[in-house]
Amino acid sequence: MKRSITTNFKNIVNYLGIAAETADRLISHRQSKWIRNTKQDTVIVFVHGFLSKGEKAWSTRTSNWFTIIQNDPELNHCDIFQAEWYTTSLSGRYDLEDAAKSLLTELATPHLPHRSIWEYPNIVMVGHSMGGIVIRKVLIEHPEIVTKSTVKILTLSTPATGVNLINHLLKWKWLPRNAMLQELQPTNEELTEVHKQFQILVENHAHNISGIELYESHLVAPRHPSLEKVYATLGQPEPLVPSSSQGNYFGSAVEVPNSDHRSISRPTSSESQSHHHLKKLILVQMATTPASPLSAEEIHSSPPETEPLS
Length: 310
Known about the structure:
alpha/beta, 2 domains
C-alpha cells in the first residue's frame, strides 16, 4: 500500500513537470526574425546560447551588435538573421537534439516574403556558448548544407569538451532538472559525440567550411581597478569556458582579451575584438563558384547520399 502511494505520487509529480514544461515552452516561444534583408548572397545568422534569447544576447545598454554591423560599410553585402531556439531553466527534458531540430526548422522555413537561410550561397553562423554546439549538431545531421553552400562559423565561448563548473552545479539537488545543462558536462556522451563528428565533418568538407573559435579571458572581466587588484592579489579564477575546452577545428582558438562569458558576445563598437574577427571571417574571399544552395523542400526531404560521418 505504501509503495503504491509513493508510485502514484511520483507519477503525479512527473505529469505536473511535463505540464509545466509544455506551458513554459508556449509562453517562452520567440519568433526568429530578419534584422536586415536586402536579398544579398551572404547572410549572417546569430544563434544565442543557453538561458538566453533575442537581441539581449547580442547587446549592452548602449550598444547592439546588429547596429554595429549595419553601420559597417564593409558588411553592406550581408543580410542579418536573428535565430531563436527554446531554452529556459524549466526546459526539463528538452535536449540538444530537440534544439537542433528547432533551429533547423527556423532556418529552413522561408520567413515570407524572404527566402530561407539555406537558400543563400554564403552562410555565416555566429553562435554564443551552447548556441555554437546547436549549430554544430545541425550541420552534423545535415551535411548536405555544407556541400550546397559555403559555410563559415564564428563561435564565442562555445565549449567543445564541456564546462567543468557544470559538474559542481549538478551536485545542487534543488536545481530543476535540465537536459541541456547535463549535456554541458565534460563527460557527457552526446557532447563528446558532437565533438568527434564535427571534427570529421570539417575534415571531409574543408573546402566549403571554415571558422574561428573565440574564447573568454576571464571568469569576470576586470572592468574596474578594484577587481584588477583582487586578481593581482589572489590570482585569476579559470574562465567559464577556457582555452582547454575549445575544439580547435579551424586551427588554434583565439582568446579575446578582457572578456568574460557575457561580454564576448556583446561588442561595444566596430573596434571590438569579436566584431573584428567576424569581419575577418566574412571578408576572406568566399567560394567563387559556390554550389547551388538548398531549397526549403530539399532540407525537409530525405538527405542525399554523402560521405559517412562515422
